[in-house]
Amino acid sequence: MMCAVTEACTSEEIKVQPSQLRESAEANGRIYEEQRKLEESFTIHLGAQLKTMHNLRLLRADMLDFCKHKRSHRSGVKLHRLQTALSLYSTSLCGLVLLVDNRINSYSGIKRDFATVCQECTDFHFPRIEEQLEVVQQVVLYARTQRRSKLKESHDSGNRNGGSDDKTKNADRNYLNILPGEFYITRHSNLSEIHVAFHLCVDDNVKSGNITARDPAIMGLRNILKVCCTHDITTISIPLLLVHDMSEEMTIPWCLRRAELVFKCVKGFMMEMASWDGGISRTVQFLVPQSISEEMFYQLSNMLPQIFRVSSTLTLTSKH
């Protein structure tokens, strides 16, 4: 998967935009002053007969914190990038899931923020984020063209049989967009802790409280985990509530129902992994928005070991 390498002069300095780094560091400082970072870690064993150990983490953090370089001077940036580069062609890659709209660009929302972080440091291995998105657009355009051609054939056949043309009209309206549950991938060597970003398309339906395990967003997570199994991505970060920011309708019952759904679905997907990759130990990080309360965070933390089988230590004492 990590195969496209761009030659660069070894003596060339890593280019960093100081203004963006300074603004990013100051913004991070303000965020952590307002909300203390919370984290809980768990070790679980999944499987029927042959069990596999996995690590789970629950964090209250910004998803882009895994992309930003945390540093106080330029040398820190180079050392951190070197660590990421050393694992770039390993079998222990790191990825994260970004929730995006159906347009393939970097013009708004978290897509724009992610693109800004990607531009802070030069990527010597993979094309720039804009170039990667252009390739994705071309692939989607080709796929939509093929799908439209097949729909047109069925439409012509349906007309002969008295059928309707609603599907063809719908295909025309969504010609250049991706659908909820679909995702595209970008690769990076210049980010802090990740190599791969999965851009998962979701719509406003994720804000409702009645989604099920068959929702496109949930099925998209399943397909993302399958890609992780086939491409040596052993650490994946997932937005637990399927949103990056909280809003008024996201009450405590809403959060508990959504977390329970995602926990149970991810557990099922992880058990499927054994048949996909033979049972490789992985790390799954569940992130909740920074604006969530500490009380809500610890309620979610208490829910996780009830759904997953958390390993416990056994203390042996000898009788004298």
UniProtKB/TrEMBL annotation:
Residues 150-169 are annotated as: Disordered. Residues 151-169 have a biased composition (Basic and acidic residues). Coiled coil: none annotated. GO terms for cellular component: cytoplasm. It comes from the Eukaryota. One of its GO terms (biological process) is regulation of mast cell degranulation. This is Protein C12orf4 homolog isoform X3. It comes from Tursiops truncatus. The gene is C11H12orf4.
